[in-house]
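Q: Entry one of two.
A:
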Amino acid sequence: MNFNVGTKIQGALLTHPEKTIPVFEKFFKAALTESTLMLQAETVRRTPVSSGFLRRSVGSEVRGIGLNMMGVVGTPLQYALPVEQGAAPHFPPVGPIALWVSKHNFSGLMWANQITGVESTLQQLAYLVARKISIIGLKPTWMFRDALEAAASRIKKNLQTAAQNVVGELGL
């Protein structure tokens, strides 16, 4: 999502860039840093936890210099996208699901088959979860989308304040 903040500084940036760009960069870099950290915190709060890898992998940074700056919040983990957006029915690998089952203490739920009296194993429980995913898929979590919706007004306010600070410092 992009936020555009119109200000009086646009003309000054064109006529006196050597004076205005450093002031612009100072205030907008600070606003983008604060905004991306806020968005990162909102995203982490909404991120589901199993092992904690996904939650710990969410990071933020401000990229660029001068007038070409942007704040980025994201994760390098490949499985973040299906967690965010959900996934169509597919048969996932049982190994990671077995780890998830063991961490969520479903192993305590191992039951005896009422007909044979044989207990289920961790692998069998993981297989059942994988089979369920192959039938219904995964529901989306929308941790990034919902975090952005929750923080959007504060981010916009930060950027508007940065623009006002630039105008104030330049005396425009």
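Q: Entry two of two.
A:
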Amino acid sequence: MIEHNSFSGCDNLKELVIGNPNCVISDKEKTISDNTEIKGWSNSTVRTYCEKNNKKFGQIGISYIIGFNKQGGAGGEELIYAYPGMNMPAVISPEKAGYVFKGYYNGDRQYYNASGEFVLGEELKTEEDMIGDKALEAVWSAEKYNVLFDANGAKGNMSMLKDVEYDSEFLAPDS
């Protein structure tokens, strides 16, 4: 975080390069000169600050949007930004009643595990946004249950059905 008045008296500061894409600039006193070019990533808090405060923005690199298709799940990230040369962040895993989250995939390739950790090393190697039909998709497996029927006072044995998947149809045993 860049605190209030950090650049007070720096009237001749021509360029400010901020490599941290999540750096928060808190400059309520407007001490960053209008002549200063602030450089940051294409999708970053620096760019947002410059746009909101009518400051000169210079781009130091392109960041990529990574979208998440939750496949009916709720919670977690909608999208994140990937920055070349920087570690991928962990994400919050979505939830879905009756299902276990297995991770985020693109086709057969897993990118995030069930805990929301990036599994392909530290960096994502991409040169394009991964949104729309290129978004990472949640993979779910249905929870399984054992179902025991109660004879309710009638005679006979009632057997247990094992591994009945959530939200699936099944028939009660005959006896």
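A: Comment on entry two: Helices lie at 45-52. The longest strand covers residues 99-106.
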